[in-house]
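Lecture 7 notes: from sequence to structure.
We start with the chain below.
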Amino acid sequence: MLALTACVAGLAGCAGTNQKSIAHSSEIDPYEMEWVATSDDPIGLLVVQKFKRERQRTHSGVDSDHAMVSEALNYLGIRYRFGGNSPDTGFDCSGLVAYSAERSLGLKLPRNAAAIAQQGTSITKNELKAGDLVFFNTMGRRFSHVGIYLGDDRFVHSPSSGGVVRVENMTMAYWSKRYNGARRLDNSLMASARAAN
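Predicted structure tokens for the same chain:
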């Protein structure tokens, strides 16, 4: 009986030690542990989503202190949806920009790319800074697509049906041929937004 008790205690100790080492091992990718986060564990689900966003941000190669850039990069991988204006529904191009501007800057922007192109100050391509808005002619009309400039010729956007929010290079032939301007959301817009609140 004593031997059996010692054996059971030994096995329990192994199981307990094994579980502890697995749960705290730095070699385990937290994204592989998504099974831990269920509807019974909403905090776990939030942690997994945060880790996913951080990993996606790392893979985008963008490190910016600009609030709108940081906000938009939180949504990498969110699916495109025409008319979509939140991470829950998905985003179209102007939905991503408007949502990111409101969340990070408190600025309400119009809900289509052409109307957004009337906001702020027009700037040239060589003046671009992180957080500026970049516009493209993707539908045979000016300012039919908008993204947020990240620096180093890259921008984040919600591209089209079947796509997801992602980072792309403006020097790619497709985007280079269709680029048709940029706008900076200037201090007067920010002041108006603060006054309205």
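Points to note: The two ends are 74 Å apart (CA to CA). Confidence is low (pLDDT under 50) at residues 4-40, 55-63.
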